[in-house]
Amino acid sequence: MSLIVILTGAGVSAESGVDTFRDQGGIWSRYDLREVATPEGFAANPTLVHEFYNDRREQMKAVEPNAAHRALALLEHRYKGEVLTITQNIDDLHERAGTKNLIHMHGELSKVFCIRCSNRLAWDGALSAFDNCPTCGHAGCLRPDVVWFGESPYHMDIIEEALNRASLFLSIGTSGSVYPAAMFVEEAARTGARTVELNLEPSEISELFDERIKGPATKIVPAFVESILAAD
Ligand code: BV8
Hints:
By secondary structure, the protein is of the alpha/beta class. It has ten helices and nine strands.
């Protein structure tokens, strides 16, 4: 059975009103990633990091999936083969659009974990250093369940296995500036996948793809999904 592997980045959620990182006015133009997206930054100033993620968790409640998220969910439900969506995003828009076979390789804003007892739990409000872990009862040990720079992305074994047997690899709304996600296209191409980049602008890795489709995700993703289903 043929497998389509899809990698998404912040660009797939941009038209839902979720900030991207490296576009004009993006998150990394307002915050220093070393202060808010590294374990060292969290150790140095947990309050700043909690506020950074609390703001984004709040923002997530005010946004809805867009036509690109919905088209990818439709592809998973209608395609005769298998579809795996790997997202670098920590929002919940893919699942809210109906995608089921989904990997959050950089974690999820809607979850936290305890650095003392490792318990992982859903958390939809503000988090602070004064919150107690409901499992071990200690305060100051809950952190956002996101993968920071210098930490290992989640489910890399499942991702590597899927890349090795994909017949089609799609990269949607990512600048290709973060690793190891930026290497997935080469891994998929090595074992024979057709590779397509769907992005508003050429990314840092555009030349690695067989094809490039340029435009806003809510326009180019539904059209591309239609073409795959028509040929299926
Ligand atoms: C790791 C946290 C070891 C949560 C993030 C080589 C190999 C391995 C590692 C490295 C390497 N070189 C450097 C590293 C280290 C580092 C790294 O990549 N550094 C960079 C800065 C060079 N990587 C790591 O530390 C990773 N860990 O390597 O561990 C390891 C390695 C392999 C196997 C096991 C272990 C951990 C990286 C994760 C960091 N955490 N986020 C959070 O706060 O969100 S990364 C951060 O960037 C976000 O999560 C985001 O997902 C990610 C990528 O950004 P994009 O999604 O692409 O967003 P961006 O704004 O950049 O681009 C948006 C794109 O959309 C643009 O192209 C734009 O044109 C387009 N767009 C905009 N609007 C639209 C649109 N497209 C379509 N339609 C639109 N409307």
